Amino acid sequence: MLESNQSPYLCHVFVCTNDRKGARKSCADGNSSEIRRLLKEEIANRGWKPKIRISQSGCLGVCDSGPNVMLYPQQDWFSGVHVNDVPKILNRIEAILKENK
Ligand code: FES
Questions:
Q1: Using 50, 70 and 90 to split pLDDT, how confident is the model at 101?
Q2: How far away, in angstroms, is 41 Cα from ligand 1 center?
Q3: Backbone angle region of 33, left / alpha / beta, with phi > 0 → left and psi within -120 to 50 → alpha
Q4: Residue 52 domain-assigned?
Q5: Number of domains in the chain
Q6: Has residue 63 been placed in a domain?
Q7: Is 69:16 a contact under the CB 8 Å cutoff?
Q8: For the chain, what percent of residues have pLDDT higher than 90?
Q9: φ, ψ for residue 59, nearest 5 deg
Q10: CA of 96 to the centre of ligand 1 (A)
Q11: Is the CB of 59 under 6 A from ligand 1?
């Protein structure tokens, strides 16, 4: 039976890991699986797992600007993400946590 509940997470981070294997541009071309892995690892290291969820997603519809990472319900989008940008995304997540203390 269908249930409707509030998200248990303050912020749900979706990392597009769609891979078209070179047939057309996709976020996997920019090593998005590694971006996801680094985010997951650091969220766990910082003890944020109860409030922050990192999930891989399929195509978010803006492939040409990928790799794409979106934060909900904040509606923040990061495009053209490089593995070196992970600290910047973590800074934004930290700010969200502080805003919601
Ligand atoms: S493949 Fe990532 S947004 Fe389309």
A1: confident
A2: 22
A3: alpha
A4: yes
A5: 1
A6: yes
A7: yes
A8: 99
A9: -55, 135
A10: 25
A11: yes
